[in-house]
Prior knowledge:
Layout: H1 7-15, H2 27-46, H3 54-66, E1 69-70, H4 82-94, E2 98-102, E3 110-114, H5 116-137, H6 142-157, H7 162-186, H8 192-198
Antiparallel strand pairs: 1-3, 2-3
Amino acid sequence: MKKQPSPAARKAKSQSDHLRLDLPNYVPYRISIVAALVRRSLSDIYRHHPGLTEPEWKVMTTLAHYGPLLSGDIGLYVTLDRAAVSRSLARLIEKGLASRTESKRDQRMFLVDLTPEAAEMYDDMARHALEIESRILETLEPDDIRQLLLLLDKVESCFRGYVDRRRTSLISTAREFSESHADRRTNPGEDPSKRRRNGRTSASRKTSIPRKA
């Protein structure tokens, strides 16, 4: 069956001989606007204090939620190439926000994590991030929120392929290794599942790291 043009496109065709988008009803445009507004609000959290760039914020968020990680595994979690990850990590170390130690698993890479000071700093930033989420959700009913998340998953799946599914598997493997390594290093006798339940930060909730897009 021949695919029909979208309502936005049909409306545009009826208005003139030129194809124009009905922007208020053009879904990709609306999504891009919302994404830009959310990104702008988040940038207010990290740009002024502690003065991070967006790539540095992404790396710091990754370490806050999944660290310690091998330096080469950070790119599995963020929309950054290897060079950008390396630069951001170097800046975080320079600012005293991240530390690195030699990796027994892979001598070509380092095991990196947030410093204690950075972990406390991220707690505060996470609280501000949750306030942004509250602004988004306060006008929605619980059923609306569940439906929104479901719809976002469906939209996101349109742009996901084998590489992204493979990435999910790699993230799971890297996370299990990092948690196991940290458990053995910090408390050899502690049950690893207990540490996962306790969480990484002292904020009341953990914000979710943005999916790789």
